Amino acid sequence: MKKSTIWLVVILMAVTLLGLLFMQIMYIEKMVKMRNDHFRELVTLSLFNVASNLERDETKYFLEKHIDNSQQRLVKFENSQFVANDGSFNQSSSFSKGISTRFNNDKNDLSPKFNYDRSRQEILKGEYLYQKALLNEVILNVLEHASDRPISERVDSSMVRIYIEQELLRNGLNMPFDFAVVNQSAAVVYSTNGYEKSVKSEDNVYSQILFPNNSNSGNVTLKVAFPTKSDYVFPTIKFMLPSFAFTFLLMGLFIYTIILIFRQKKLSEIKNDFINNMTHEFKTPISSISLAAQMLDDEAVVKSPALLKQASTVIKDETKRLRFQVEKVLQMSMFDRTSATMKLQEVDADSVIYSVVNTYKLKVEKFGGTITANLNSDDPIVNVDEMHFTNVIFNLLDNAIKYRREDVEPKLTVTTVNPDTSHITITVEDNGIGIKRDDLKKIFEKFYRVSTGNRHDVKGFGLGLAYVHKMITLFGGTIKAESEVGKGSKFIITLPLYK
Question: CA-based angle 451:455:458, to the nearest 5?
Answer without folding.
Answer: 75
